Amino acid sequence: MARARKRPTLAVWKFASCDGCQLTVLNLEDELLALADAVRIVHFAEATSASRKGPYDVSLVDGSITTPQDLERIREVRRLSRRLVSIGACATAGGIQALRNFRDVQGFLSSVYAKPEYIATLATSTAIADHVPVDFELRGCPINKRQLLEVLSAFLQGRRPDVPAHSVCVECKLRGNVCVMVTGTPCLGPVTHAGCGALCPTYQRGCYGCFGPMETPNTASLARAFQAAGHSEAELVRAFRNFNANAPAFREESERHDE
Amino acid sequence: MTNRTRTLQVDYLTRVEGETSLTLRLEGDKATDVRLSIFEPPRFFEALLRGRSYLEAPDITSRICGICPAAYLMSACLAVEDALGVQVDGPLRVLRRILYCGEWIESHALHVFLLHAPDFLGYPDALSMAKRHGEWVQRGLRIKKAGNTLMSILGGRSIHPINVRVGGFYRAPSRAELEAHLPELRWGRAATAEALEWMAGFPFPAFERAYEFVSLRHPSEYPLLGGRIVSSEGLDIPVHGWDAHFEETQVPYSNALHARRVGRGAYLCGPLARFNLNFDRLAPEVQEAARRAGLSVPCRNPFRALLVRLVEVLHAFTEAIQLIERYEEPAAPYVDTPARAGMGSGATEAPRGLLYHRYTLDPDGAIREARIVPPTSQNQLSIEDDLRTLAPELASRSHAEATRLAEQAIRNHDPCISCATHFLTLKVERA
Ligand code: SF4
Ligand code: SF4
Ligand code: SF4
Fold it and tell me: Is the pTM of this model over 0.80?
């Protein structure tokens, strides 16, 4: 009998998240069995009770760092992984839970009604790359299936993933959408990383930035356009302080409007 | 077996959504200590919602859970609309039900085929199960995909749909868009019926518990969106009565709150509760399929929840097909929802059970106070009680076998840990 070829190993890890990004792996319904053929999935707690010790060829990490224990755990995952790819807004920007980073934490605590001493948590929610070196960051809340497949096959073939860094506007134009901004609907598309195929404008809704900032976004110019359309400073803050609130470009723009 | 004391310890429960561990101490055939310790970090959604616009509640709370985002979208919309005094009816409500059917299909199929079935057949996961039962795993994936596709047609994507808003949708799908999916839904209905027959032959431990079942009940529908909250012990209250009849408490070993009936204690929500309290609302052919699979009311064996989930998938396919066949495009994709002050509550049936939201809004629509009670915090006590009742059986098995059975017993309830750890309490340690 021919010996099984040596397949690269894949591990999937979860930190503070909604599980949506790792669920994207299981939502590869048409490709899952083929994927399991191309790689050995050796750790993926949501999907399998079997787990093998590292090192791992590729690790996918979903979720942000919010506890002292997770800070330790991510270092261990990094140590055991040849390639580490962080997936989703939680892992690449701290996720929606990073809204806490903008709060007066003392005020936060005074609203506590039960027994806070039972729970240990950090004052912030931060991206994986804030703590360990990351080989690639895949954006989105959630990530896009096709982009995930591209990233996985790129790492398996030892090349850089081909994930365009342009804005949602480019995808919107490619789809032939009518721009929602012409009717005064605020849209974060001009500063948001491509990847969703301009989903929201296609459904006649403004983009709310779930793929996080594109490369070198001109957030100040977009903010001026929102102001010209009559949106208040508070609305601007909320627009940038969302699922990617702690991504530097969005954080800085939101802080500019937050007196 | 003996008077021996032993401890079953599972540090990281697998094939559930989120992070939890189990400690179970057996003395002889009694469980003296059962702790489902949810160590998933809490994410404080109720606090984060304060000061956000009422229009943002659905999108933000959907990020509590990637497996049942529609449940969050829908409960948040119903609660906010209740606060605004707005009713969403007709074709818009039909679209909401269709979206929700999609979620039941994808979430239940994920649990049944990929996470739970391997327990009954003795595999660590669906991929190893596929070596002998490849046909079924493939069908399970295709059933799941049929649900996800339904969600994508209505919501733009299946994880965190973007097309849902307070008052309805941003864009209503055309008849043609929905009809194009009918052949796949019909295939799914047939495949699910076959899967139900197959799984009815699985080895189910003989085990029953006298749960108090809690679910929504609607005058004419199997419960999805709204209705009254009823229980097998005679509770029958409007949704806004939740706070008077249920309470949440904190325990030292878990990052999730435990819910209980005021003055009564543990109860169970989810598929088993819905099935037992609403069997008469299932489509007639689905009732028939359930009977053929050996299910009848009352069903108090939590291991059989696997079959009940398939019955619900079958119902969701049947209902989605009927709703699409009768769908009339709405005149507008949403009803207007101008801001005003108010307090409102809303509940829907997430795949794992009752999901309750309550919001207090300021006159400008800013959220002053939010309360979210997900199914898993409601079911935790019952899950621990299951393990207590299972103790003699666990005591009679080898350590490895007992641990496997305990894990399976927890998976019976498809606990969703991300949902359970959304809550407010916070202790800060400076980084
Ligand atoms: S990025 Fe969004 S979808 Fe992904 S895990 Fe975080 S909250 Fe969920
Ligand atoms: S709708 Fe939004 S994404 Fe599309 S072109 Fe206009 S601004 Fe860009
Ligand atoms: S349009 Fe924007 S908010 Fe909508 S899915 Fe795409 S990136 Fe996310």
Answer: yes
